[in-house]
Amino acid sequence: MSTIVPEGHSGDPNTPSSSGTCETPPIWPASSGPEAPTSGPAPYQQASQASQASWSPQELQAPQASSAPQAASPSDAVAGRPWRNRQGRVAGAAVILAAAVVGAGGGYIVANQGTTKDAATTSATLSLTQVEAKVDPGLVDVVSTLDYGEAEAAGTGIVLTSSGEILTNNHVVEGATKIEVTDIGNGKTYAGTVAGYDVSSDIAVIKLEDAPRLQTASLGNSSGVAVGQNVVAIGNAGGVGGTPTAAAGTVTGLGRSITASDESTGSSEQLANLVETNADVQPGDSGGPLVNMSGQVVAIDTAGSSTFQFQFAGSQNASSTDGYAIPINEAVSIAKQIEAQKSSSSVHIGPTAFLGVQVSSTAGYYSFGTATSGATIVGTLSGSPAAEAGISAGDTVTSVGGHAVSSSSALKDVLEELRPGQKVIVDWVDEYGNSYKATVDLATGPVG
Fold it and tell me: Are 252 and 375 members of one domain?
């Protein structure tokens, strides 16, 4: 099976693991951007259009404690909308021409974090219809234009603050050169920019432009989630927009780890410490909320077995409806770090530097010499810093800004540490072993 899957998590060897594949959208820009090559593998695009998020914890209403497991009656599904009536992929971005999605979380208060009080005594249990009515107004649909119009992606997001901070999966906005967000609460569409992201945890924060006082989501406490607890996955299933759809289920596992592989790029990432559910998470639900029966967000949908060929340790296969979600406490912690503009080895703040090269996954080499480590170039984006410097197909980049580049993935890591507009020296060799050096001004490109 293949679909888009979240990127960049680190697994825990002490928890069960699984593996799978996914598709990612095409990368080369279309006619609306710089001229793109007519053939070759997806280019190495790095960068994000971003603004720095700023929100006040006081803006968010402190949610109630997590509810105890309660069963929704069959009549709930009849009285409300279908629990799942749209096609798509589990916790990944729904493909339009390509795909992506958004999520939940916040830089605010998690309900009764650390308390041991029985949640059943402090939270009401709602019917499915009531849960949807409470949650929907705090959600958004996200549409990302990928790589200068080459494709589009659609998904789900959750409103963290009334001024327009949205928590989402990183894989929802990855590769975006334009982001539009439609608020379910008021029906209006806003332009958005990425304030920051954590690839390894698949979390990103979007800042909306000129948003009024939006209705925010109610956040629960993921430390209180238990196996067997009833939950509901709500989101933009199928990426079609409009009224969100809901899928009821139960929590079937905690602390799960999976491996997601991207067929188009050959990359793979481990997703760790996930909540597992049998709720039928669909494409377009990525970044959408997994809520308890009090309508509080306890996790963010990020992956589902319809997108993977899952296999746990011991050759135990995942069921056909397994979905996986990031605990809301973890997502909130990352969102707060992004809001505070505190970058780290995993959290990137603001736009990402862009060199404008298309790279191969194979090791660097040149025809009349010995193999050399580096990022092998198979094409450059017209008008990009790399093209202006004279880098071309067949060359191998060995250093950027004084940082050694040993592979294509290493080039990405180096660019994550740099900033658009920064002047850096790039070293490379051609296929004959000749060495070159040039100073370039790094540009801003698609979201990293």
Answer: no
CA–CA distance, 329 with 131 (Å, rounded to integer): 20
Final residue before a domain boundary, out of 322, 349, 376 = 349
Residues 301, 357, single domain; the answer is no
What's the pLDDT tens digit per position in 20-53?
333 333 222 233 333 333 333 333 333 333 332 2
Contact 356, 312 (CB under 8 A): no
C-alpha pair distances (Å), 209 with each of 53, 143, 206: 11, 15, 10
Residue 6 lies in a domain: no
Whether 180 and 69 map to the same domain: the answer is yes
Q: Which domain holds residue 336?
A: 19-349
Q: Can you spell out the DSSP letters for 277-346?
A: E-S---TT-TT-EEE-TTS-EEEEEEEEGGGS---BTTTBPPPTT-EEEEEHHHHHHHHHHHHTT---SS
Domain count, the chain: 2
Global pTM reads: 0.70
Reported as a pLDDT band with limits 50, 70 and 90, residue 161 is very high
C-alpha–C-alpha distance, residues 377 and 303, integer Å: 32
243: helix, strand or coil: coil
CA–CA gap between residue 184 and residue 427 (Å, rounded): 49
**CA separation for the pair 61, 218 (Å, rounded):** 7
Domain termination site, one of 313, 333, 349: 349
Residue 427 sits in a domain whose CATH number is: 2.30.42.10
Q: What is the token pair recorded at 41? A: 């593998």
pLDDT for 360-382, tens place per residue?
A: 876 655 555 566 789 999 999 99
CA gap 422, 7 in Å, rounded: 27
CA distances to 168, 183, 336, 359, 427 from 158, in Å: 7, 9, 15, 35, 43
Secondary element (H or E) of residue 409? helix 408-416
